[in-house]
Write a structure and sequence with these properties.
This protein is mostly beta strands and about 500 residues long. It folds into 3 domains: about 200 residues, Galactose-binding domain-like (Jelly Rolls, Sandwich), CATH 2.60.120; about 110 residues, Galactose-binding domain-like (Jelly Rolls); about 120 residues, Glycosyltransferase. Helices cover about 15% and strands about 35% of the residues. Strand 24 and strand 25 form a beta hairpin. The longest helix has 16 residues. It is globular, with a radius of gyration of 24 Å.
Length: about 500
Amino acid sequence: SDASIWISYQGPSLQPNKRYYWKVQITTGTGESAWSEPAFWGMGLMGEIRWKGRWIGMDRPMPWDSETMFSRLSARYVRKEFKLSKTIKEATLHISGLGVYECLINGERVGDLVLAPAPTDYRKTVLYNSYDVTTLLRSQADNAIGITLGNGRYHFMRQNYRTYKIHNFGYPKVRMNLIVEYTDGSRETIATDTNWKLTADGPIRSNNEFDGEEYDARKELGSWSETGYDDSSWLQAERVSIPSGYLRGQTIPGIKVVEKINPRTIRKSANGYILDMGQNMVGWLRIRVKGNAGDSVRLRFAETLQPDGELYTANLRSAKVTDLYILKGEGIEEWAPRFVYHGFRYVEVSEFPGTPTLANFTGEVVNDDMPLTGTFECDNPILNQLVKNAFWGIRGNYKGIPLDCPQRDERQPWLGDHTNGALGESFLMENGPLYAKWMDDIRDAQREDGCIPDVVPAYYYYYTDNVTWPSTFIFISNMLYEQYGNPGAICKHYPAMKQWMEHI
């Protein structure tokens, strides 16, 4: 036919945890093309019934944690050793670590996603990520897996503060299935259960998206994700309360470090030093430092400066936006936070042992991974700069959901901010998968009576029954069709859109 995209799959029934390879040949009025190179996709577990194991973690704070408006909750670390007795053909890891996670197998990091999985309304939907980990495992040998759990938006950033408006979903937890297929055709699943070990007494002492991350390198756990590690002092992982949301595979590429930039200048200030990245960016700062055990580096972030050259932070409101690294005192140490991000151009560096130089710092830009599809340049430098500013502002707000801002104590996915903005954004980058996922989030947030909130996922409980913000559901679904030819959001959500219209 004349259709060349969004062709519905009509092959044999798809099977869980299986890779499918495909290629394309095009037939035109003048003949046929050569076959394309093969590509593939992988199927997830396709339903709760196929998941093994349990959600594990610990549904309580540790004695050194605090749960206040400025909450402090240390990261949880879980580990497991296991033996694979046969020759591995293929291995796939399916994992949902809430709020956010980092996974290691035999000391090697799994994948390059950060701040995964993408945030959702965990009462309705919980996402998991899938990875090919064949090369990380050892056939006929002992293996080990370690998972670090951060708070993210699951254990939300303002516990016991405005609980009538801000929802907290629970304590960090993880469910994981590692499916190993052997060359003899058999398979084995390694799953999370109460035989795993857990500690919260590791180096990440606090991780809070508004306030920053605190890391004490003196408490590093050594080779905790490798075999032969002594975890006898660790606790047993506990079976914990399950998220009420349904487990679904994440269908967007996810968040990554997409660019690295070097700072432009560093100068002395009243509280230490002011670092200028030369660009308002969203992500974090990677540092390299040498000092004694117990020395520290404190980093405070801001988008602009006061007239006297010091940080301007009034626009950040109650967000502390401060990272703290405490040295272990073993040569040159390199560190970047794992479970927070900041919107900034300037960084106040204080308590640094010695005199910092530009070489001590690298900015890492963090946002949803998506191809850049358009550029703009003309002979007017002001217009060129406006487009550049827009590009950096747009990408900084892509965090698995489209945010309103990445720097102050809000960072919320307000619907109205993107009603028409999504269209303009699509001329610069391929935002279709992200916005298709957001349309699913809007459907999840819709009440039974048809009402749609102003913030989705509904991290703020604002069901105000205005027309402007919820109409994003219709506008952006239409954008996905007009810009990308994708009718999926309209077809899937038409009943929900109709229900909202009837409600209004």
